[in-house]
Design goal:
The structure holds 2 protein chains of 2 kinds.
Chain A (H helix, E strand, L loop, with lengths): L3 E4 L2 E4 L5 E7 L5 E7 L5 E8 L5 E2 L10 E5 L2 E6 L8 E7 L8 E2 L3 E5 L1
Parallel strand pairs in A: 2-11
Antiparallel strand pairs in A: 1-3, 3-8, 4-5, 4-9, 5-6, 7-8, 9-10, 9-11
Chain B lengths: L8 E5 L4 E6 L7 E8 L6 E6 L4 E2 L4 E4 L5 E6 L8 E9 L14 E6 L1
Parallel strand pairs in B: 1-9
Antiparallel strand pairs in B: 2-7, 3-4, 3-8, 5-6, 6-7, 8-9
Classes of the chains: A mainly beta, B mainly beta.
C-alpha cells in the first residue's frame, strides 16, 4: 500500500491567518482525498483532488475557504484560509489502494485556532 | 451509497474475540463492505473488505450474511492495542480508485485488561 507523509503534524494558529497542509505520496495516484475530523466526530470529506484539474468539493465546503493544489501525481496541498476557532480539527489526506484494496490515510494534521 | 448502522460502543475482554456488527440492509449487488479502524490520534487504517463470501486476513475475519444485509467483523484475540473506533463502510467496487469513502459514526471498541 502507498505511504503518505503529511505535514505539519500539528499547529496552533491565530484566527484570521491561513495554514497550508502538505501531503506527499510515495507512488503516483490518480485521486487524492482530503477529510476533516472535528473533535469527537467522524471523518467528513472536504474535496477530491485530481491532478491537472480543479478539485471537486463536497456540500458545505468551498474553494475560497479550502483551496487545494494538485501539481503532480504524488503531491497535494490543502489550505485552510481565514481561520476561525471553528476550523480547529484534524485534517487528513487519503489515497486509494491498488485494485480497490484499502485506502491509505496520512497521519493527520491537528489544527488548533486561537 | 448504502447506509450502515453500527452500535455506538462495545467492550471486550483482552484475549477474547471481539465481534463488531454492522447493518447495511440497503446494500446493492455491486457494493462491497469495507472495515476501517481509527486508533486515537491516528489516521484510519484499512482492515478488510468483502462482497459476499467470508474473508479472513492477518488482522481479522469478516462474516457477511447470505442476504448481505449485515456483517460482523471478528477480531479473534483482542488486545489492548485494538481499542479504536471501527467503521463499516459500503461502497461500489466498480468505482475504482476514484471513489470516495463516506464514514459513519462507527463503533468505539474498548478492550479491557
Amino acid at each position: 500500500s502507498a505511504v503518505i507523509s503529511q505535514k505539519p503534524s500539528r499547529d496552533i494558529c491565530q484566527r484570521g491567518t491561513s495554514l497550508t497542509i502538505q501531503c506527499q505520496v510515495d507512488s503516483q495516484v490518480t485521486m487524492m482525498f482530503w477529510y476533516r475530523q472535528q473533535p469527537g466526530q467522524s471523518l467528513t470529506l472536504i474535496a477530491t483532488a485530481n491532478q491537472g484539474s480543479e478539485a471537486t468539493y463536497e456540500s458545505g465546503f468551498v474553494i475560497d475557504k479550502f483551496p487545494i493544489s494538485r501539481p503532480n501525481l504524488t503531491f497535494s496541498t490543502l489550505t485552510v484560509s481565514n481561520m476561525s476557532p471553528e476550523d480547529s480539527s484534524i485534517y487528513l489526506c487519503s489515497v486509494a489502494g491498488y485494485a480497490n484494496y484499502g485506502y491509505t490515510f496520512g497521519s493527520g494534521t491537528r489544527l488548533t485556532v486561537v | 451509497d448504502a447506509k450502515t448502522t453500527q452500535p455506538t460502543s462495545m467492550d471486550c475482554a483482552e484475549g477474547r474475540a471481539a465481534n463488531l456488527p454492522c447493518n447495511h440492509s440497503t446494500i446493492s449487488g455491486n457494493e462491497y463492505v469495507y472495515w476501517y479502524r481509527q486508533i486515537h490520534s491516528q489516521g484510519p487504517q484499512y482492515i478488510i473488505h468483502g462482497l459476499k463470501n467470508n474473508e479472513t486476513n492477518e488482522m481479522a475475519s469478516l462474516i457477511i450474511t447470505e442476504d448481505r444485509k449485515s456483517s460482523t467483523l471478528i477480531l479473534p484475540h483482542a488486545t489492548l492495542r485494538d481499542t479504536a473506533v471501527y467503521y463499516c463502510i459500503v461502497r461500489p467496487y466498480s468505482g475504482g480508485s476514484n471513489y470516495k469513502l463516506t464514514f459513519g459514526k462507527g463503533t468505539l471498541l474498548t478492550v479491557n485488561p
